[in-house]
Please model this.
Amino acid sequence: GTVFNVFFISILMTCLSPFVCYSHPGDGGSSVVGQASILCWQGGEHASMVVVGILTFALVPMPFMASAAYAIRKYPEKVKSTQSKTFLLYCRFLFSRFNPETYYYSSVMLLRSFLIT
Model:
């Protein structure tokens, strides 16, 4: 979890890169920012990049955000339980930086990282 949290922005940027296009001056076309030779929304190469970007987003960052949201939601319940040491151990990367009263700040930080990209 900690490693993924560190690389979260770069993984998101990679997933969303096919959707970042810039306009050509004059003719009205656009190209992918990272690959100037690939025209946006014209041709199979960009379409395949979009499909891979969507699949990658659905398989990597989205499950991480969902599991983090679940852990944040269950945190108050698990802290009160005496048999939840494993949960707190596995999810400490979400909660260790904040006071116990502000455990939900990790969701704010994840949302901020998502919006930065």
Observations:
- The two ends are 19 Å apart (CA to CA).
- Helices lie at 2-6, 8-16, 44-59, 61-80, 85-90, 92-95, 105-116.
- The chain has a mean pLDDT of 86.
